[in-house]
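User: Assemble these into one structure.

Assistant: Restating your components, then the assembled model:
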Amino acid sequence: MKMLSVLEHPRLRGGVHAEEHKTATATLPINLQFPLPKKLYIPVQQHVGKPAEPLVKVGEQVLKGQLLAYSQGTISAPIHAPSSGTIIDVLDYPAPHPSALPIRTIILETDGREQWIKTPAVADPFQLDAEEICLRVGAAGVVGLGGAVFPSAVKLNLGRKNSIHTLLINGGECEPYLTCDDRLMQERSEQIISGVRLMLRGMHGNRAIIGIEDNKPAAFAAMQTASQGFAEIEVVQVPARYPMGWDRQMLRYLTGWEIPADGRATDIGVVIHNVATAYAVYKAVILGQPLISRVVTVAGSAVGKPQNIEVLIGTLISELLDFCQADSQQTARLIIGGPMMGDALPLSEVPVVKACNGILALSHQDIAEPEVQPCIRCSQCVEACPVGLLPLEMASRIRVNQLEAAVDLGLKDCINCGSCSYVCPSNIPLVHYFKFASGELFKRQRQAHKAEQTKRLAEDRQQRMARIRQEADLEAQRTMEARAARARELEAATATAANSAHEVN
Amino acid sequence: MNNTAISGPHIAASNSNSTNQIMRKVILALLPATGFGIVIFGWPALYLCLISVGSALAFEAVCLQCRGLKPGHYLADGSALLTGLLVALSLPAWAPWWIAILGSAIAIVLGKQVYGGLGQNPFNPAMLARVALLISFPVEMTTWVNPGLILLGPGPIDSLAIIISGVANPDAVSGATTLGSVKTGFSLNQTLPGILYDYSGWLALLGWERGSLGETSSLLLLASGLWLWRQGVIQWYTPAALLGTLSVLALLSHWIDPQHFLSVWVHLNSGALMLVAFFIATDYVTSPNTRLGQLIFGAGCGLLIFVIRSWGGYPEGTGFAILLMNALTPVIDHYIKPRIYGRYRNGKPLDLGQTE
């Protein structure tokens, strides 16, 4: 029985051993010497949910940390000025996205003074109410820095409302090349632990587990030292196997629990945050500083000086690349994020946003451009899938446009981690198939919705017209009847008059 | 930099096998057994291999041309070469030239290309050819030449004559395989230890016995199979399930009735078993794509091989067993699917409350 349950709920499923490429940057301290950019490009949408609404005007002077755009609606996050200076424009500017489609962006010309806005000091942050902590986290624009950029305060509030027993802090950083969380844990472990304690307090949690991949022994040691004395915080190592940083994979490995397919982590009493988010919470609550900077890994073999840099949000990626001596001639592909799930950028003159944990300038020797061959059904993709899907079967359905069949096979459970494409001996771009299918399904759904709307409007109109016609008919009938009645009256009156006249005569 | 939409991953595994490498490694793994077959069966075996492989490549090229594809590009994947080689290895070593060509034609044209080429065929092409030839040409397909060293046998020129016009006096140089003589013995009401009076288990393991061109040496095929497994080309599930099931059944039946059921040792060292277990049943295209599915597939093959060998009309059942299980593969794949994260096997989302 026991063995059967192991088969049914294996703690570690699928995944791949990707070449790490981390050593170049993992041993260097975070560079804090990045020169202040002349202009910062700050998109108002850097998070999941509704975009923030700008409240500054062109020409206005702002201080560092000043609110630039306020959060709208329940799932949203505010945006703050990364430095002091003048707002010179609010316009549509290319987003750091594969499409490079323009989004609303505030452009700030820095004045070089780095003058902070005054923030009220907190006497003892660890005595703050849970609500107060969430409020401060929300007001500081903290979002999930692991890549999901979900507003952190919303998660903490959700945690307080549901009964949460475990806070999982994700220090997996399983993407190759990326080491920004690794360095953060090595250098700022005490601050991260403070952030974790504040998070626990903010959601009335009493236990936190910090999972760190075992390819980061220095980070693990630092975090363990920093967490000593806090019995509620446990720091554990997890095997380095991509995608261990998929929060659900790490949760399953550490606890054996799985989040139901239609649910959230809070449904099973768990909240999951990234280590960098914990650090941002520390800064927000203890230092009163909003999220205006982050650590970014700049790496790839086209980069002369690969390193981790702490940069202001809104810094152009092109400036970051120049600073790290990236060779644009050598760059075959520019990627934002990690090489497994990151997006290829068509241009580098786009800003660093809160989600940006890595900028990779990969040369031809790094990237995968081999030719695609037919699927030989070797089922390595099945072995590699951490979700338990059949990528080869899904792809074969999508190839013949049977998208519904792909959905039946679990397309919507796919997390686009890329493990399948990574191991495919025929180099089939499986993730591309799945993204295409999901997009196509979304489009169809929207079209169907639109068609339905149109149909309903047409029906409404028909009904309205029928009603109007009916009313008109009724009205006409009434008029006719009235007219007939009046005629009869008139007739009667005439008759009476005639009679009386007759009588008179 | 290009501006086309690209999805991740942007890097590829440098340490894993590409499709062409997989094919090359399988071919490489078959070479020891092939070489051994040529050494013990002589020049005709070499000619048969060349004819079979050459015609397989030719048929593949013609089919690709008909489909409007560039033959040179697709031939390079090595799959046609592999199929041609497998066809050759499953033929009697002195079979006539046209058997090899017909076998390759059946395998490549009917077994593979009519379904859409590499990756699309429901049946293993080489096994399809083997079974089709066995049913159609039972005499040519069961004339088993005695093993001997290549240097002592007919020379290159004489061998050419053997391949083209057949051997002059087949009875002088050929006989039955182990499984064949057992089947015949049973039909004559003989019983087991007696039928195999001159059987040597060690020579059979080594491959010094009558049989198909490349199937006699269980030892070399086993070693090559294990190498393929170490290379990550095949998984152990299918061979282990196949050999395990057959072994258990043989052990039980032989223990109950040693006079009418072959021992495990004879089963494992006879016929195409090792070739099938490591090189045919593990064929990606025609076997299930989950671990459990592969275990079931392997066990099914083992069971069918045992049943056909014990009670069937043919002495050797591997080809039929493989084709039957190939036919079942879509069914296995339909019912055996991995459990999706956060869901029960039936696809319903997990219930809450598992953490309490």
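Strands of chain B lie at 144-145, 174-175.
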